[in-house]
Amino acid sequence: MRTKIVAGNWKMNKTFLEAEELVAQVAEAMDTRKLDNKAVVLCPPFPYLELATDIAKDAKFSVGAQNVYPDDSGAYTGEVSPPMLKSMEVEYCIIGHSERRKYFAESNEFLAGKLDGLLKHDIIPIFCCGEVLPEREAKKHFKVVEKQLNESLFHLKKNEMAKVVVAYEPVWAIGTGVNATPEQAQEMHAFIRGLIGKKYSKKIADDITILYGGSCNAKNAKELFSNPDVDGGLIGGASLKAVDFLAIVDAL
């Protein structure tokens, strides 16, 4: 049985005091919630990871990073390595987000290295994939996503693949207020699960968690999550307010 997950990607938002308040609000609210086969993950900016992991020790949520560099150490000014994240008890890490691909020109091959680095240190990757609007309009969205999976994920062994979380992002729906319809989300999630099944096994495909990311909010979360292949969400803007984020958690 696969784990249902709601992960909050704060992106480059919040001061330290604001972050402290938001983490505390989520931690307090989670005390009253049951999380049978479910997980809640907060992914704040790097400077707040230790704050979050300290609070998470006594709370019902996990902590994830928003990015990582593939190597364990080296002369890479400004970068953060998998061992650094592990030393702070970070359990998850987002990689391949469309903003990293767009603004920092991260290639599928580079992301494959990040996957290897994270898995080497037992950190769960949340691997993002998805198409931009021209690719969707040209009906190339399936080919685009398949290429991303082939070049970044499908070098993994079966036992490694079983540890990965996939997040489908229709890039045209991120931060735009326009989300994919439940039918569009289900169609792509089923497609991704089918590719994983062909490459690995039906069991791995059935057990892997696939999240939806793209203007998911408190109003549409329940309908999106009701699809059989949508196992939760990677939440952006709606994760910056505790009340909105918790409403999405409750929609799982």
Question: How do you describe this structure in short?
Answer:
This protein has 252 residues and is α/β, with parallel strands linked by helices. 43% of the residues lie in helices and 15% in strands.
Layout of helices and strands:
Layout: E1 4-9, H1 16-30, E2 38-43, H2 49-56, E3 62-65, H3 82-87, E4 92-95, H4 98-104, H5 108-120, E5 124-129, H6 133-137, H7 141-152, H8 158-161, E6 165-168, H9 182-199, H10 202-207, E7 210-212, H11 221-225, E8 232-235, H12 242-250
Q: How are the strands of the largest sheet arranged?
A: 7-6-5-4-3-2-1-8
Helical fraction: 40-55%
Radius of gyration: 17 Å
Mean pLDDT: 95
The CATH H-level superfamily is: Aldolase class I
Number of discrete helical segments: 12
Q: Strand tally, please?
A: 8
Gross geometry: globular
CATH class: Alpha Beta
- Ends distance: 15 Å
Architecture (CATH level 2) name: Alpha-Beta Barrel
- Low-pLDDT segments, ≥5 res: none
Q: Encode the helix/strand succession as letters.
A: EHEHEHEHHEHHHEHHEHEH
The CATH topology is: TIM Barrel
Major sheet attributes: 8 strands, parallel
**Count of discrete structural domains:** 1
Structural class: alpha/beta
Beta-strand percentage? 5-15%
